[in-house]
Write a structure and sequence with these properties.
Elements: H1 6-18, E1 29-34, E2 37-43, H2 53-56, E3 60-64, E4 70-74, H3 80-90, E5 99-104, H4 108-117, E6 121-126, H5 132-141, E7 144-149
Parallel strand pairs: 5-6, 6-7
Antiparallel strand pairs: 1-2, 1-5, 3-4
C-alpha cells in the first residue's frame, strides 16, 4: 500500500470536512496546516446562529463573473476558506506561514483574505471558474498556488 503524500493526505481530509457543508451549491472544505499539523478547518456554511441553506433555502444573487457572464450565486453562507481563517482568529490560532488546502481554487475575496492572513501556500483540489483574479493576487502576494486538477465545477 502506497503512503499518500502530505498534499494527498490533507486533500482527503478536505473532502471529509466538506461533508459538513450546508449549501449544496458549493460543498467545499478547507484545512489550514503548519508543519504538517492541522490548525483549523472550515466548510461552506452560514455564520453561527444564522439560518443555513439546508434549513431555509438559498439566498441567490446575480453575480457578474470575469468572463462577463451573469450567474446565480448563493450569498447565505461563508466560503470554506473564510470559515477556516475566521475560526483560527476566533480561537487565537496563528496561521501566518501556513498552507491552506481547499476543494477549489479560492475566489477573489478568499484570495485577498488568504494573502492578508500571511498564508504562504494554497493547494486546491480543483480549479474554479472565477480563479483568474485569485491567481493574480497570489502571484503579487507571493503565495504559492498548486491546483491538482483542471476540473472546474459549474453551479
Amino acid at each position: 500500500m502506497k503512503k499518500p503524500t502530505w498534499d494527498e493526505y490533507f486533500l482527503s481530509i478536505v473532502d471529509v470536512v466538506a461533508t459538513r457543508a450546508t449549501c449544496d451549491r458549493g460543498k467545499s472544505g478547507c484545512v489550514i496546516v503548519k508543519d504538517n499539523r492541522i490548525l483549523s478547518t472550515g466548510y461552506v456554511g452560514a455564520p453561527s446562529g444564522l439560518p443555513e441553506c439546508d434549513e431555509v433555502g438559498h439566498l441567490l444573487r446575480e453575480v457578474k463573473y470575469e468572463d462577463d457572464k451573469l450567474r446565480q450565486h448563493c450569498v447565505r453562507t461563508l466560503h470554506a476558506e473564510q470559515n477556516a481563517i475566521i475560526y483560527a482568529a476566533r480561537y487565537g490560532v496563528p496561521i501566518a506561514g501556513a498552507v491552506l488546502y481547499c476543494t477549489m481554487c479560492p475566489c477573489y475575496s478568499c484570495a485577498m483574505m488568504i494573502a492578508a492572513a500571511g498564508i504562504t501556500k494554497v493547494v486546491a483540489k480543483n480549479n474554479y471558474q472565477a480563479s483568474t483574479d485569485a491567481v493574480t493576487i497570489f502571484k503579487k502576494a507571493r503565495v504559492e498556488l498548486v491546483i491538482m486538477n483542471s476540473h472546474s465545477p459549474k453551479y
